[in-house]
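Structural prep section.
Before we set up the soaks we want a predicted structure of the protein with magnesium ion in place, mainly to decide which crystallisation condition to try first. Input record follows.
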Amino acid sequence: MGLNLEYINGQTPIDEEEKEELKIKTISSRRELDEFEQKNIEEAIEWTLRTNFSLEEILSEAFILKVHLKMFNHIWKWSGQIRKSNKNIGVDKYLIPVELRKVIDDCKYWIANDSFPPDEIAVRFKHRLVKTHIFPNGNGRHSRLCADILISHGFNRSVFSWGSYDLSIKGGVRTRYLEAIYKADAGNYEQLVLFARS
Ligand SMILES: Nc1ncnc2c1ncn2[C@@H]1O[C@H](COP(=O)(O)OP(=O)(O)O)[C@@H](O)[C@H]1O
Ligand SMILES: [Mg+2]
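Run finished without errors. Recording the tokens verbatim:
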């Protein structure tokens, strides 16, 4: 019994210990989990739409953790908490606080110096967050919502469309998304910026 999950390419597996921290014990499949998480995330998005956030607030550790908490608080006890296990992606668990600080400071620097156009700053911020992999799971969705918050509240521009598709579903759009991510891993952000607006 318990939660039996299937994974698709580029998804981070959830440890057995992390699975035990599921708040809704009746969830037993990937489909059910996806649905419950999606409901929770929609609540978080509503929160971001009805609240004003300053750039200073957005670019803080506390806020970045809070976004994850708001996205998954009904589902996972570890929502909003830095991961305590290592994953096949992301920095070592002990280095997360230091890396998160660096991501924030770099993003502040890009903004202060107009290093890149606003869309690219938000997409670079997203990519650095997901590379750090702060949480046991939900890092992809969290990083995209953080980029949406930064571009809308910080730069007064519309949120991204991220391929206009549910990226948790296997298929052509997710493949294009992952290809763009791998280019960004190599330092080329152009494709990921284009994808974010497609
Ligand atoms: N090589 C990579 N570089 C950067 N990000 C990656 C890479 N591989 C996967 N990702 C990101 O990590 C996400 C998977 O992490 P996960 O915590 O499971 O997030 P979610 O549960 O929201 O999908 C992918 O959706 C993708 O955004
Ligand atoms: Mg996942």
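Observations: The chain has one domain: 16-157.
Flagged for discussion at group meeting.
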